Amino acid sequence: MKLTKRKQNVIIFSAGESIRNGTVEYIQNKLGDRGILCFDWRSLFSRAHNMEQIALLPALMKKIPTFDFALIVAEGVDTVKLRGSEERSAIRDNVIFELGLCTMALGAERVILLAEENVRIPEDLIGVGKMGIEYVTFSSVDREATIGKVGEIIDKKADVLKERFMRQLSEIIEHINKNSEQVSPVFVGAAVSSAEAYFINFIVRLFENIDKGFSSREHPEKVYPCPDRIKLCICLPSAVSMSTRSMISVYFKKHGYEDFFIGNAGIRGLFFNGRLDESDSSLLIVDVPTSITASYVLVNSVLSIDSDADYDASAEERFVTKEMDIYAFALNKLLSPEVARKRLLFIHDSEKIERILNQLQNVSIEFMDITI
């Protein structure tokens, strides 16, 4: 499955002066022209009841992880007096704090420090580029070219980090194979562990037991489909909410998918939805993983941390989108032959493993609108 690249969400932190002098707006417009969605730090507090009473640190801690990248604009808006009476333009203290906060929340490689030329960088930040943070300088003369470079950095990093994630995911799955058959780590939110549980508890169980036959209200007698005529389409909802579970069942009924049942699929029966074509014994199974809602529950819990502000629906949407991407990446990787083969070693039947691997080639993943 080829996963389409979505627009990257970027949060911009700066001193208040960089807002007032138009620097941040200029950056937003230029990056927006490249299809990058930018938000300045004020948007994080737009739902605050009272800016004088808002708990700033909890608000930042729960909102920053909803973005893909952070851009820290460091203009020399302060003047500091150094030893020997030398005066230098310097970064505002809060900008340094936000640089550290974003590094912890997103990882160094998702943070870009855009600093004005000749502005003093604190000694503790010397060598900041070597720890993964992208360090870019600009002047009033070459500002447009510099912002263009920042856009290129974000696009390139998004692709590189996506590829790196896939490699890291392989290492995680390898670790699972070596250390535990059923327990998965939570990589980001609940996405990876939910995808891995879905792979084992539904996809593998389905193909491991479907040769035993299945039945439904419309087909009370057991049906034994031809293995190479079984296709599984996994539909990932384009949006997730508290009502997603109920919407899934309505979606199946609306599109006329039957409720099928395998009576003896391990320790319990297995339900699935699909459409049987009796003319050629082909079976299309359509499934929407209900486990994906675990990511929404976690997102909802994080964003509900009290900071004297109303619930931020846009932050929820960004966070859930990231979780959905990771769920799809993880599931796509688990379905690949090399990873699936290792993951199926708990089945001590080589012929059954080969049959399941063959059937996994007929599995597709799609994002779609699951609405009532």
SSE blueprint:
Blueprint: E1 9-13, H1 16-20, H2 23-33, E2 37-40, H3 56-63, E3 69-74, E4 78-81, E5 87-90, H4 93-106, E6 111-116, E7 134-138, H5 143-179, H6 191-209, E8 215-216, E9 230-237, H7 244-254, E10 258-265, E11 268-277, E12 282-287, H8 293-303, H9 313-335, H10 337-343, H11 350-360, E13 363-368
Parallel strand pairs: 1-2, 1-3, 3-6, 6-7, 9-12, 9-13
Antiparallel strand pairs: 4-5, 8-10, 10-11, 11-12
Description:
The protein is of the alpha/beta class and 372 residues long. The chain folds into 2 domains: 9-161, 3-Layer(aba) Sandwich (Rossmann fold), CATH 3.40.50; 180-368, no CATH class. It has helices spanning 16-20, 23-33, 56-63, 93-106, 143-179, 191-209, 244-254, 293-303, 313-335, 337-343, 350-360, and strands spanning 9-13, 37-40, 69-74, 78-81, 87-90, 111-116, 134-138, 215-216, 230-237, 258-265, 268-277, 282-287, 363-368. The longest helix is centred in the middle third of the chain and has 37 residues, at 143-179. 33% of the residues are buried.
